[in-house]
Design goal:
The chain has 277 residues and is an alpha/beta fold. Helices cover 22% and strands 26% of the residues. The chain is built from 7 helices and 13 strands. The structure holds zinc ion.
Length: 277
């Protein structure tokens, strides 16, 4: 059965309750550390591409983060960012039909080396969605299992620019939510709308508390506050429902929302080699 479209408020509450119920009476979180990694910047020519009717014609710069979670039972990387090859391009990489310039100052590979993590150590690479600023380095992890929604994988393979997966890549294709380590500490949340199989990540850190990593469920704080839907999203109603779903999870889990592309918010985070516990 494919579940696509708007979910009723009651059904949504039930889904959230089901997804989160194992965590309420759970054993302590097995997470040891979360690192925030600098996965590049996007320079947009016109902010209104992401916030229709607002700041038309004004440029904007986004942060682009990856996140590495060390859990007692394995290592998970959330998103892989802009391709490391872009770090060697003095003028960056122009994408999106000229709308965006991608840049990188540090490679993902170098940041992982700095914290003593080898690609082969990373059992899971979970990707929020298949846009280039999130899957740019996915082929650096040829032995990792990719956690991706089935609908996202199928959609991506119909797109003009397909993700550059490694030939040996293992896939664990999901339909809906996934409790990655089985202890409720790292939970993939299905949040479609930006793309057909977009997903976000609820991370329940032992000291910091719960954090939702947005993916591109929302791009900026102001868009979150106003529930704005970017023009390139594949489904407006799903986008709004996903934002509401995240708001419910934030309230229930007393969680922070870390908006990946929100540069002012990212500037407040501690990047690797610092970490969160
Ligand atoms: Zn993005």
């Amino acid at each position: 059965m494919k579940v696509i479209g708007i979910v009723s408020a009651a059904a949504l509450t039930a889904i959230v309750a089901t997804a989160c119920s194992p965590m309420k009476s759970q054993s302590p979180s097995g997470i040891e550390r979360l690192y925030v990694l600098d996965c590049g910047i996007n320079q947009g020519k016109d902010q209104s591409r992401w916030s229709p009717g607002v700041n038309e014609g004004k440029p904007i710069e986004f942060s682009d983060n990856c996140y590495l979670i060390r859990h007692a039972n394995g290592v998970l990387l959330w998103d892989t960012g802009i391709a490391d090859a872009v770090a060697a391009m003095p003028d960056g990489l122009v994408t999106g039909g000229g709308a965006i310039t991608q840049r990188r100052t540090k490679t993902l590979a170098a940041q992982l080396a700095e914290i003593g993590v080898k690609p082969a150590d990373i059992g899971y690479v979970a990707i929020s969605h298949t846009h280039g600023d999130h899957v740019g380095n996915v082929a650096l992890f040829p032995t990792s299992t990719i956690l991706i929604q089935t609908v996202e994988y199928e959609w991506a393979m119909t797109q003009p620019t397909k993700p550059a997966f490694a030939a040996t890549q293992n896939f664990d294709k999901l339909t809906g939510d996934r409790d990655v380590f089985g202890d409720g500490s790292v939970l993939i949340l299905s949040t479609p709308g930006h793309t057909p199989g977009h997903q976000s990540l609820l991370v329940r850190l032992p000291k910091t508390g719960a954090v939702v990593l947005s993916g591109d469920a929302v791009h900026f704080r102001d868009n979150w506050d106003n529930r704005r839907v970017p023009s390139m999203n594949t489904n407006r109603d799903q986008t709004i429902a996903s934002m509401q779903r995240i708001a419910t999870v934030l309230a229930e889990q007393h969680a922070q929302l870390w908006i990946n592309h929100d540069k002012p918010q990212s500037a407040q985070l501690r990047y690797a080699p610092a970490h969160y516990e």
